Amino acid sequence: MSLEGKVAIVTGSGRGLGLAYAQELARQGASVVINDVDSAIAADAVASIEATGGKAFAVVAPVGSTETAKLLVAAAVESFGRLDILVTNAGVLRDTVLWKMTDEDFDLVINVHLRGTFTCVREAAAYMRENSIAGRIICIGSPTGQRGNFGQTNYAAAKAGIVGMVRTWALELRKAGITANAVVPVAATAMTATVPYFAAAVAADEKDEAMPAFFRHDLGFGTAADVAGTIAFLASDEAANITGQVIGVGGDRLQVWSHPEPVVTEYQDGGWTYDALAARGPGLITDNLQSIGEKFPPLPEELRPAAAPTA
Ligand SMILES: NC(=O)c1ccc[n+]([C@@H]2O[C@H](COP(=O)([O-])OP(=O)(O)OC[C@H]3O[C@@H](n4cnc5c(N)ncnc54)[C@H](O)[C@@H]3O)[C@@H](O)[C@H]2O)c1
Fold it and tell me: Membrane-spanning regions, if any (predicted)?
C-alpha cells in the first residue's frame, strides 16, 4: 500500500467525491480524518472505512473558520499521531444569475470553498513545516473556476481563487518539500445529479451500471471513485516533484490544465494611449479572443432526457 503510515484529512467527506477520496486514501493505507456538517453521514463514512480494515475518525464541524481548521489538524495529531495529507473538498452551491445573487449566496459559497480552503491549508502547512513533514496539499477546483459558468458567480470566484492560492502555496511551500496541487473533478454526485445533460449517466450510476462511453470518454464524466485514484497518487511519495499543477480528472479522462499565459505580447513606444489602442488594439484583441464557458457536444439521441432540453 502506497500510503501506509500516513495520516490524511478530507473535508466534506461524508458523501460524494470526498467520501470516495477518503475511502481510497484508507485503501492505500492512510488513516483518515473524516469531516462533514452532517453527523450521520460522517459516522457512516467512518464505519465504511473501518469495515474494510482501515482507520478513520470523524470531526463534525463546518469548514470555513480557523476554529474548524484547528480542530481538524488537532484531531489528526491526537487520533493518529501526525498529519501528512490534506484534501480540501467540502463544498456547497448557491447558483443563480448575477443580478439575482444575494450577499448571503455569495458569502456562503466563498466562506466554505475559498475561506475553508485557506484556513485549513494554513493550519496544515504550519503543522507540516514545524514538524518537517513533506506533506501533500490537494485542493479541489472546478471547470467553472477554469472557464466560468452561467449562474455561478460565487462558485467561479471561489474555485478560480483556490487555483490562484495553490500556485502561490506551491512557491511558498517548495523549500519545505510540501506540494500543493489542485484537482478539477467531474463526477456523478448530488452536485451534478440534477443537471439534465448528465441524466443518463447519473441514472446508470444510481443503478450501479457502467456509464455510457460518451460520458466517460468524450465528456470525462464518471463516478466519484474514478477521481479518487488521482487524489491518492498526488498524496503519495511518487508525486514529490508535482506541485503547483491543476489536474482535471473524470471518467476515463485525465487533463493537465495550462496556467494563464499571454497569447499575444505587443509594445507601443510611450505606452498604450487611447489613440494608440484605437489604431492598433482592435486587431490585437479581437483577433485573439479567448473562449468562455465550457462547450458541451450535443448529446447523442439515445442519451437525451425525455422532456428536458439538451445543455
Ligand atoms: N461533482 C462534480 O462533478 C464536481 C465538479 C467540480 C468540482 N466539484 C467539487 O468537488 C467537491 C465535492 O463535491 P460533490 O460533488 O462530492 O458534492 P456533495 O454535495 O455530494 O458533497 C459535498 C459534501 O460537503 C459537505 N459540506 C458542505 N458544507 C460543508 C462545510 N462547511 N464543512 C464541511 N463539510 C461541508 C456536504 O455535507 C457534503 O457531504 C466540491 O468542492 C465541489 O465543488 C465537484
Answer: none
Q: How many residues does the chain have?
A: 311
CA separation (Å) from 123 to 9, 126, 130, 267, 304?
12, 5, 11, 44, 46
H-helix segments, the chain: 16-27, 39-51, 66-80, 103-109, 116-130, 143-147, 153-173, 199-206, 213, 224-234, 274-286
Residues contacting residue 270 through CB under 8 Å, at least 6 positions apart: 276
Cα angle 185-190-193, degrees, rounded to a multiple of 5: 90
Task: Report which of residues 42 and 192 the model is more confident about.
Answer: 42
* Pocket of ligand 1 contains residue 156 by CB under 6 Å: no
* Structure confidence at residue 307 as a pLDDT band (50, 70, 90): low
131-143: average pLDDT? 98
Rounded Cα distance, 194 and 173, in Å: 39
d(CA 212, CA 205): 10
Is the pLDDT at 130 greater than 90, yes or no? yes
Residue 90 Cα to ligand 1 midpoint, Å, equals: 5
- The architecture in CATH of the region 7-187+223-256 reads 3-Layer(aba) Sandwich (3.40)
Distance 156 CA to ligand 1 centre (A): 14
Task: Note the pTM of the prediction, 2 decimals.
Answer: 0.96
- 20: cell is 470516495
Give the closest residue to 244 by CA, choosing from 138, 143, 147, 124. 138
Query: Which of 6, 13, 31, 142 is flagged as catalytic?
Result: 142
Integer Cα distance of 10 and 21 in angstroms: 7
Measured between alpha carbons, how far is 180 from 85 in angstroms, rounded to an integer? 10
Torsion-angle region of residue 81: left (phi > 0), alpha (psi -120 to 50) or beta? left
Please tell me if the CB atom of residue 227 comes closer than 6 angstroms to any atom of ligand 1.
no
